[in-house]
Design brief:
By secondary structure, the protein is an alpha/beta fold. The protein contains 9 helices and 5 strands, in the order ααβαβαβαααααββ. The chain has a 5-stranded mixed β-sheet. The protein binds cobalt (II) ion. Cobalt (II) ion (CO) binds next to helix 5.
Length: 213
């Protein structure tokens, strides 16, 4: 059997499991989605959003890219954020990084990988703006882990700086922003930062909305 065929077989077994628990599982889930959470995670195969959080279909709206970056010119992530806040009206946005992240590790090297240099450049910028702290960590592994954490915090700050998020803060008083890190050695999630609606640390990133009272 080809490896991909296992996935199709597993799918049949999964459908049966769900139907055994709830005969109408798919009819109910097909009707609508009302997820409370937008999950922005790494594409890494070892960090499956639903599995590590015990979430069921319909609970997480998910966006994943290399090293869980929130870049203010990336139409992909911005479209996801706009739909999640304006249409789905999610209560929470979670940025989840992970120790052992290949994107973070590569960004710490001088390797030239072509196109992906442009993506990883954003992580080099996080390193650059935290080089005092990172430079004081002599252990390579510890410095790598700390950059994983600092990158999550930076991406959560980016969320707070996006006008779409600030507009939702004004109209809905949500979402709350969270930065988490997943430890691939223990399977545990750890919260690093939480930003409540309306909290903008630097006024240069604050937007006024003339159409809102
Ligand atoms: Co990763």
């Amino acid at each position: 059997m080809e490896s991909y065929q296992r996935l199709l077989l597993n799918n049949k077994a999964w459908v049966q499991d769900k139907l055994n628990l709830h005969r109408d599982f798919f009819e109910r889930s097909a009707a609508d989605q009302r997820p409370e959470f937008l999950w922005i995670g790494c594409s890494d195969s070892r960090v499956p959003a639903e599995e590590i959080t015990g979430a069921e279909p319909g609970e997480l709206f998910v966006h994943r890219n290399i090293a869980n970056l929130v870049i203010h010119t990336d139409f992909n992530v911005l479209s996801v954020i706009q739909f999640a806040t304006q249409v789905l009206k999610v209560k929470h946005i979670i940025v989840c990084g992970h120790y052992g992240c290949g994107g973070i590790k590569t960004a710490m090297t001088r390797r030239d990988l072509g196109l992906i240099n442009k993506w990883l450049r954003h992580i080099k910028d996080v390193y650059h703006s935290n080089q005092l702290e990172l430079g004081s960590i002599s252990d390579d592994q510890m410095r790598y882990k700390r950059l994983v954490e600092l990158n999550v915090v930076e991406q959560v700050n980016h969320l707070a700086q996006i006008s779409i998020v600030q507009r939702s803060w004004r109209t809905e008083n949500q979402p709350t922003l969270h930065g988490w890190v997943y430890d691939i050695h223990t399977g545990l999630l750890k919260s690093l930062v939480q930003i409540k609606p309306g909290t903008i640390s630097d006024n240069i990133y604050r937007y006024d909305f003339e159409d809102l009272p």
